[in-house]
Amino acid sequence: MSISKPEVRPNNCNFSSGPCAKRPDWSVSALKDALVGRSHRSALGKARLKESTDRMASVLDIPKGYRVGIVAGSDTGAVEMCLWSMLGGRGVDMLAWESFSSGWVTDVVKQLKLKDVNVYEADYGKLPDVSKVNFDNDVVFAWNGTTSGACLPNGDWIASDRKGITICDATSAVFAMDMPWEKLDVTTFSWQKVLGGEAAHGVIILSPRAVERLESYTPSWPMPKTFRMTKGGKLIEGIFEGSPINTPSMLCVEDVIDALKWAENLGGKEGLLSRTKANLKAFENWVEKTEWIEFLAETKETRSSTSICFSIVAPWFTALDAKEKTKAAKKISALLDKEDVAYDINSYKDAPAGIRVWGGATVETSDIEALCPWLDWAYENVKSEYAG
Fold first, then answer.
1. Residue 3's pLDDT is what?
2. Is 28-264 a CATH 3.40.50.1100 domain?
3. Which residue from 363, 382, 361 is spatially nearest to 371, judged by alpha carbons?
4. 357 — phi, psi (to 5°)?
5. Domains of the chain: which residue ranges?
6. Residue 27 CA, distance from chain mean position
7. Is the pLDDT of residue 313 over 80?
8. At how many degrees (to 10) do helices 43-60 and 269-288 cross?
């Protein structure tokens, strides 16, 4: 069956899961006041950096006593900084169910070479059994599986009387999902995700318990300068007061301030969550009436509203071998790229062959609604090559 090209196109075709779409109506003029050519250590530079973290804390309703700091290397750098600085004093429980969370397991087991490590894994689209976690240990996990489209539904499983600390990679969850801050001792993310900021910068949020860990525990291994958060046994407060360890881009800082102002005008966190939920709902409405596609996430409760991952379930597709599935799925996304309808919607390279579309708050629901008929059109064109 062939179908005609849809008449309506998305206004913004950027559906990448990172870096993600800019806020609606963004233009480079938003950066006109950036402190380019100025030292980030100047009074104005420090003030602008502190403004960005203060606005983040306000939008996210971060509890009093928590610290928010900017670090190098995007979310990856932020996670690594915390793993290398805080782990090793007690056992570690790790949850892994997709590429990035599996990567943290590799770092802890093969790079840090910690011995007392329990790993609880699950396939793409599923979550590990969190009831097995021992909170006498430190616990490392992602909140949202960026490459699997499966996310934790809540933090009820995290013990309030835990002895270890929790380290949460929340890069595609923060600003889009409710985060139980009282259960999270270390939270990391990159503003290139839900805020649509520019890449290369990471953010760390530390609870008082995390600060206590940093000030009471010294790892046995050498610590690179960019990972050091303490000096003389005390937290380097400057990291959380507008003086990051390395030189940040003031263009990127200006950009995230602009995104945060936009978020504030939406009503803050609730406004962002509302937009993201509406985007997922638009896809749910489409999937419900579409036979060839399903969400990769196993249950509705664990379905991500940001990195929305799909499986192609048509019989002709499932009969293909893994290599041909990847080729067929890429043909669908390539058709939409060629038509300037949707860019960068391939599933992640390590994930099952399929489609991944970003549904974070900077994406307009109307653009997702316009995209769905195009997905049907591209699918039918590719199907005709395989199934006639």
1. 86
2. no
3. 363
4. -125, 130
5. 28-264, 268-387
6. 23
7. yes
8. 50
Residue written as token pair 């929340």: 170
| Exposure string for 72-110, b = 16+ CB within 10 A, e = fewer | bbbbbbbbbbbbbbbbbeebbbbbbbbbbbbbbbebbee
- Cα dist from 331 to 55, 307, 325, 327, 348, whole Å: 42, 20, 10, 6, 15
- Beta strand 92-96 with 138-142: parallel, antiparallel or unpaired? parallel
Residue for token pair 């979550």: 127
Q: Which two tokens stand for residue 152?
A: 């934790």
Give the phi and the psi of residue 331 in degrees, each rounded to 5.
-65, -35
The structure's pTM equals 0.97
Distance, in Å, from the CA atom of 68 to the CA atom of 70, rounded to the nearest integer, reads 7
CB atoms near residue 4 (< 10 Å): 7
CA 136 to chain centre: 27
Could you tell me which of 3, 46, 13, 54 has the C-alpha nearest to residue 333?
13
The per-residue pLDDT for range 43-88, each reduced to its tens digit, is 999 999 999 999 999 999 999 999 999 999 999 999 999 999 999 9
State in words which class domain 268-387 has.
Answer: alpha beta
Task: Give the C-alpha distances (Å, rounded to integers) separating 313 from 287, 291, 354.
Answer: 11, 8, 9
What pLDDT digit, counting tens, does each position of 280-296 carry? 999 999 999 999 999 99
* Tokens of residue 77, six digits: 């750098």
Sequence length of the chain is 388
